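Input (structure):
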């Protein structure tokens, strides 16, 4: 065990998009496949911009204590925001295809075996800003097995809203210190830690690209190996 603070842990709660699965490949590919004639955008950068705008809007929703907004509506409005001023035009059908690309998540190569090993010792749970139905479909396609899936539509909030973590802990019937939040996003783990949860940071090349991690403290940091790297530390 890498850290004594983890020895009483019983459940692992995983962020999904960017931690367990690759969102960038399917979304940037959808942009490229649906590019308007003559478009010369860097679609990888454009996909990152879309996701960044998603986080900005979620932060506004949480800050204003707004009523829950569906993730589809957030993706739709943020697509319009990043589209503005670019000259890019997509019809309604194509916009829906772009939004659906977020459901085409691809498991990282370490995720299936890493999750299998982790599940032998811990209850494994998804705590995601995604919608539960789409996450279930993604897991079937990627052959990933979980004990529980908690989408934003189930907990009624988007991380890092306190309600997301508190609801998950309550559903599991555990103490916060018995739960390890696993994510490739420092903001997610910082919020989880504020509720007494333990934290495991998974380094992914597509995530936290502009975040200075020296300002954060995690119970365990996995610099390489993803979920297999985590399993090698907390399962042995």
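Output (sequence):
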């Amino acid at each position: 065990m890498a850290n004594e603070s983890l020895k009483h842990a019983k459940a692992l709660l995983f962020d999904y998009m960017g931690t367990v699965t690759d969102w960038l490949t399917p979304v940037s590919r959808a942009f490229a496949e649906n590019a308007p004639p003559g478009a010369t955008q860097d679609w990888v950068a454009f996909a990152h911009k879309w996701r960044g705008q998603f986080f900005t809007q979620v932060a506004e929703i949480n800050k204003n204590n707004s009523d829950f907004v569906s993730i589809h509506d957030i993706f739709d409005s943020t697509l319009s925001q990043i589209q503005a001023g670019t000259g890019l035009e997509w019809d309604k059908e194509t916009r829906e295809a772009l939004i659906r690309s977020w459901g085409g998540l691809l498991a990282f190569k370490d995720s299936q075996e890493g999750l299998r090993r982790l599940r032998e010792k811990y209850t494994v749970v998804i705590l995601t800003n995604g919608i539960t139905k789409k996450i279930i479909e993604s897991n079937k396609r990627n052959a990933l097995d979980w004990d529980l899936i908690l989408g934003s539509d189930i907990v009624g909030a988007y991380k890092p809203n306190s309600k997301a973590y508190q609801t998950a802990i309550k559903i599991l019937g555990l103490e916060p210190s018995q739960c390890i939040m696993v994510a490739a996003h420092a903001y997610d783990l910082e919020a989880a830690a504020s509720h007494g949860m333990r934290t495991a940071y998974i380094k992914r090349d597509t995530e936290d690209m502009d975040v200075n991690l020296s300002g954060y403290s995690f119970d365990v940091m996995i610099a390489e190996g993803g979920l297999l790297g985590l399993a090698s530390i907390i399962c042995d």
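Notes: The mean pLDDT is 95. The two ends are 7 Å apart (CA to CA).
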